[in-house]
Every structure is written in structure tokens, then in C-alpha cells.
């Protein structure tokens, strides 16, 4: 047997070396599904399957890259390069680019990101004189998106009275008209939005049998990770492509289906066996990721769901620490708990920042966590916010480049036609839009032929429009000889962008300049890197495609060691030694918007299951008794999900009000003091019960001990510890967090002396005396 195959257990090996036919692996979190997919690809290649014939679809491009790297170490880099791997969107964008003309799109079609779509929809709503409070552009976009993902085209929409009725009932009778206009405008601009990448692929495969055949023959082996979260459109693509050879392997976990709100259909996994003949079903039961406590706790949660496939998940890993549940008074306290716990773990276990992840239900929750991490100087990174490529200054540069390859691109044009300012005002732009719609041409074409049109624009402005056209055309000429980096460098200089951002001397302006520089660096890398990648030509179009589809998760700069902050949705498939799940409060998690039906609540529960199963070593669940939401302090109750976990796996820590004051952070109030010599007590009962009207922040009365002596700042980390020599087995001690305990063992020497302490609440802990804040009683 090949050596790498010995890195799989028997249950994993079976599907890995099952070469042909349809198969599904249904298994719980951390059981090696992704690992099996990876090794299976390596195995297929070792069996002589040409990597060109293998298509692997993953949840993120980052996951695809990691799989590719792993495969490269097994079969060699040059072979692995030729694999087709990536997200549905990135793989099918490539195919659409090859086949674009069949659908009437230019080869260099633009990909509109969500921001572009939003802007276009907002302007259509405005042009149609609709009430923007009723026609909220984000809601309209999500409605259009769900039509597209269910393959409901504009024509199908207007043929379906039920849909029209539903939108009319929702006070949006013009939704179909907006949809129609939006689709036409995208098409005229030579642009596809994210959903089009799937919708148009479906159209391509149904309308052109010869194209379908071509790709069926090409992708003889198809593999799909996270199959439980495919939507209808993705499902149909996989179904069509795999129809000829039926060598399809999908892996998934129904318990981790968390995208129903975006159209994912759990039935895709449940019905797989009906879709193909002789489906082999595999199950993996051993979890390799997490401790027993975490695995068992996760099992006890998902047990509460009625809709699920029966699955066993167990682990041979250590018992591990119990899941720590922490209650805070406010979201600020919660942030401080997270930061101080990370800090303590780091110094006690010498682990990097990247071992920690903080997961939350909604993006807004990151702020309190960020504040606390910043105070502690703990580097962090937020994933899933505005991606680098969506920042204004970056989008400005990219918009110029988008116009170079596709001057019809309406959103790019509107963005930069008057930025930096060139005296082309909104009225002019509005007139151009109207004219372009009338002539059924792009705005750029109208501008180019402005003298031949009847657009009411004065001659001075006409000249400015002409200048803009000439500038873009000169970039197009340059693009024929220059590489992406050279072109972008030229564009940023000659368009006036650099000057504009330099002029702005504020710190924000400086950051913007740095970001543009980083973009240019990235382009340089791209130009260099393209020489090594087989499935790329290194064109500007390709660069723009990569950035349009790059999620924040993909743009891993890899250079800094940071704590990861992200929503649970984004954490799917990932793993971290230490995981904090914060904001476990009713109405927040489970979300107030998802408690209407049992199936919604079950999706929230699956989300909690996903969150908890990201943890390898230690999980923390935190909640606050009050929290700022929408600018107001609201009381909250602990999430029902905490109660649903079997108690034996939990450790409820000392309530926050008993240790709220943290001398390591707040010592500057006193000047430098020795941390373990400060006593404090709450000025009043600090627990806010539900229903109390207490809204004042709780104040603490600090009572410094009488013998308080200033100590040097370094004393908390040097070896001349208080306890040198005088802490003995049998001593009673008090710890800031764990409370009272008895020393039962002392080991080590010098700066590494550790004490094993049996705490009255919270079990036995081994603490490094150098850092532990103990007080002998
Ligand atoms: P999820 O459902 O969260 O996506 P998964 O089923 O895809 O999880 P993997 O990510 O493939 O699980 O594996 C979880 C962890 O266990 C990884 O770190 C992986 O390397 C490790 N692992 C899986 N199988 C084995 C094995 N046979 N021996 C050692 N480690 C393993
Ligand atoms: Mg996985």
C-alpha cells in the first residue's frame, strides 16, 4: 500500500480507494471527510487518472489551495497544478469565460460583486421612482438572488402568477420589473453577478448539448465537499456534469447544513441515493479533531434536532478540559474575558495567536471583542468584513482596470468617471444613463459618440467626456503590451488617483495609499506566479476574476500571527485549538429572526454544532447579561443552547462580578502595583437580572491593601516570584479567576515552578507560578 494511505483509518481508506461509481460519505464533524477527498484525488492520480479529468469543488478557494498543496506533497507539484479545483463560482467563471460568446457575453465579461449589484439595484429603484423604504435594495437583491438560484428567470417569473402575487402581497408589485431591468442592465454592461455564474452555467449546459458533452468528457471524476450546503443551481450543475460517467463523490454532514437561508437545500444530500444508480454510502465515525468533552457535548446538542440522519461520532482523543461557560455583565466584559483568557493561555501554554478563534453569530459583535484585544495588544484579524478588494480606494483602481477590458461595465464607469473630479456632474451622468438605455448601448459608447447623439450636454462637458474616453483607450493600448502590474502602476499615476489620495494628508489617506501599494505588490506576485500555474494565462481579465471572487478568507496574507475573528458561517470546515463562541444569548443566538419555526430553530442549532465542533482542545461559551444592540443597552438571557448541553461536559466559571477588576489591565489606576496584592469588591450587587431597570454601569470600589508597594513593571514576568521557596503543599491559596484552592503538588525549578492546585470550584489546575496570580491565605 502506498505510504500516504496508511495515514487513513480503515473506514476512511475504503471510500478513498473506491475508484469508480457514485458515492456519498455522510459523517459528522472532524471525521476526516475533507481528508478523504484530498487523499482520494491523490489516489486517483496514482491510478493513472489525468488531473485534467478531475474536478473538485470546495467551499472556499482557500480550502482548494490547501488541498492542492497537500496533494502536491503526495504526487508532486507539477501534476497537482493541472487539477480543476475551487469554489463553484471560481471554477464555473473560468468555464463561462471560455464559452461566453455562446451566451452573447464578451469573453472579458465583468463579475459584479455584491456591492456592484447593490449599487445598480439602488439606482434602478431610483430611476423607477420607487419608494426606497419599501423597495430596500438589499432585500430586492436577495429576492432576485433567490430567483436566480432556483433558476427562475425573468420570463419564468412573469409566467408564474404565484410569485407575482407573493411580491405584490409583500407590497412590492414592481419587483419583477426591477428584476427585468437589472438583468438587462447587467447584460448590456457585459457583467455577470455571482448568481449568474451558476445560472448561466446551467443555461450553457442545457442549451448547448455539445458543450455539456465536452465538459462531461473532461470531468470524468467529480468531487464535492460540504455537499449539504449546495443550492438548487449548484445541484443541477453537478448532476448534469456527472451524468455520463457517474464518477461522483460527495461528502457532507446534514448536521452542518447552515445555508438554507441562502437557498441551500439539505435534500440534495438526503436524496443523493435516489439520483444515481448503485450509490455506495460510506460513514465515518471517528473524530480526530476534538477532545472527548467537545465531541460528546456536540453530540448532546445535535440530538435535540428532530430532522437528522442518525450518525455516530466518537473520538479516541483525550478527555480534555470541560467546556468553560462564562457569564459577563456586559458585552464589554465579555470582550475582556475573551482577551484575558487568550492572554493567560498564551503565556501558560506558549501557543501562538493563530491557535485562537472567536466566533459570533453576527458581524456587529466583533467590536467589543476587538476593543478588548487591542487593549491587550493581541493581534487579531476579522474575516468576512469588507474584503480587501472591496475597499473604496482598491475598487477605484480596479474600476479603471475593469473599464480597460470591458468599457461597457456600467458600475465601474459610474464609479470613476468623476473620480478624481473632472467636472462631470451627476446630471450629466444621469443623462448619459438615460441615453444609453434609449439607444440600447453602453454608456461608454454613448460617450464615445456623444456628438452623434441628441444628449443635452454642453460642449465643455462633452470635451471632458471625450478626454475620459481617450484616457481609457490609451490604457487599452498599453494593456496589449504591458503586464497587469505595469498597467496598474501607470493607471494609478495618470488617472490622478495617487495624487488624489496623497493630497488627503489624514491618517486614513495614508492607509489608503498603503493599500494601493499593497494591491500593486499583489499584482507583481500575480505576474510572477502566473508563470508557474498551468490553468492561467495571466491576463488582466484573469486577475480581475480572481479578485472579484476572492473572499476575505482567501486573501490570507500569512505573514502575521493573529487571533481569528469571524462569523460561524464562515468558520465551516476550519479548526482551531481554542475556540470562543460568544454572545450565546436568546434572540442573538438563536437569532430572533430564526425562531419562528422549528426548522429555523434547528438550523440555528446546527450552526451552534458547527461552531462547537471547530474546537480542538478547548471551547469557551460566553454570554452577557446586557449588551448594546442597535445603540441601546438591552438585557439578555443565556441561550437555550447552553442548557441543552449535557451538564457533565460543562464547567461554569466564577461569575464575572467577582473578578471583574483585572489588575493586569487596570493597574494604571493605581500606578504600578503588584497585581496579586490588590483586593476589590463590588460596590453593590452587580448582577443585572432580567427585568431590572438598572442601566448604570456597575461601579467598583477598589480597596488597595494597606501594605501596597509599587513594584517595577517587569516584576510580573521575572523569576523573583513572591512564592519562591515559600509556597508549600497544603497551603490554601486564592486565585483571581479560580477562587480558593489547595496546593497539592509543586514541581519544576527556577522560573518554571508549577503548582498543582485543587480549587474548590473548578477542578484541579496546574499553574505556572511565574504567571499565576495567587495569594496565600
Ligand atoms: P468538517 O465536518 O468540520 O468539515 P471533516 O470531516 O472534513 O470536518 P477533516 O477536516 O478532514 O474533517 O479532519 C479533521 C481533522 O482530523 C484534521 O485536522 C485532519 O487532518 C485530522 N484527521 C482526519 N483523519 C485522520 C487520521 N486518520 N489520522 C490523523 N488525523 C486525521
Ligand atoms: Mg471538512
TrEMBL record:
GO MF terms held by the record: helicase activity; hydrolase activity
Main enzyme class: isomerase
Alphabetic keyword roster: ATP-binding, DNA-binding, Helicase, Hydrolase, Isomerase, Nucleotide-binding
Record field: catalytic activity: Couples ATP hydrolysis with the unwinding of duplex DNA by translocating in the 3'-5' direction; ATP + H2O = ADP + phosphate + H(+)
SUPFAM superfamilies: P-loop containing nucleoside triphosphate hydrolases (SSF52540)
CDD domains tied to this protein: DEXQc_UvrD, SF1_C_UvrD
UniProt xrefs under InterPro entries: DExx_box_DNA_helicase_dom_sf, DNA_helicase_UvrD-like_C, DNA_helicase_UvrD/REP, P-loop_NTPase, UvrD-like_ATP-bd
Domain UvrD-like helicase ATP-binding: 6-291
Binding-site list for ATP: 27-34
Gene3D superfamilies, alphabetized: 1.10.10.160, P-loop containing nucleotide triphosphate hydrolases, PCRA, domain 4
E.C. number: 5.6.2.4
UniProt superkingdom: Bacteria
Start and end residues of each UvrD-like helicase C-terminal domain: 292-573
Hydrolase found in the keyword field: yes
Pfam families linked to this entry: PcrA_UvrD_tudor, UvrD-helicase, UvrD_C
PANTHER family: ATP-DEPENDENT DNA HELICASE SRS2, UVRD / RECB / PCRA DNA HELICASE FAMILY MEMBER
Family, per entry: Belongs to the helicase family. UvrD subfamily.
Protein's recorded name: DNA 3'-5' helicase
Organism lineage string: Bacteria, Pseudomonadati, Bacteroidota, Flavobacteriia, Flavobacteriales
